[in-house]
Amino acid sequence: MSAPTRIAILGPGRMGSALERVAAERGVEVAAVLDRAAMAGDAEARSVLTDVDVALDFSVPAAVVANVRTCLEAGCAVVVGTTGWYDHLDALTEQVVARSGAMLWASNFSLGVAWLTRLVRVAGKLAAPAEPFDAHLVETHHAGKRDAPSGTALTLGQAMEETLGRPVPISSVRVGSVPGTHEVVLDGPFETLRVSHTARDRRVFADGALTAALWLRGRRGVFTMDDVLEGEES
Fold first, then answer.
1. Matching CATH number, 6-105+203-233, of 3.40.50.720, 3.30.420.40, 3.30.365.10, 3.40.50.10470
2. Is 88 a known active-site residue?
């Protein structure tokens, strides 16, 4: 029987708190919670992460690259849920592969959003020949969310554009404490089709991220939630 998975949380904000609660419910040990200042002390952070199986990064975009490198140096797998850093994805992927490390990244860890991503690809394929239909994506998040459009909206838009063959405009709304709502609209001359996902509780993201972390343990390479889904469905 394998030893229990030990995780570290990088970023003690709202998502960090949700991860701690869900980990306790699922019997996963939170070995450390490291804020940006703690991660800036490379040697100390590496020492902590050496005894951790998987780190979960929900920090800030500017910290992701350094955080992942620190995890690699400590031999710790890392799940990245922070968005807004994807300009560095290709370079970071090369580093993870070169060091035989493990990283799983996603703009959203909700199972429903993973399904929605697949659905919009199909919708784009069906709508591609129907030129009178316009596509649009509307995303709504809490007022404190930094990036707009959200990483999830960009992922959904890209997925649909791949099969639709034309750009999908995105509208962003920042208001109140909404965890996250994404709606894809296909509008024709006489009808409208709407497909949407609404997160009711931040724990849906924490639970998905923890599932991803447990899946990632012991693996090598760079993965996404599609890989986790394929494993669940096989």
1. 3.40.50.720
2. no
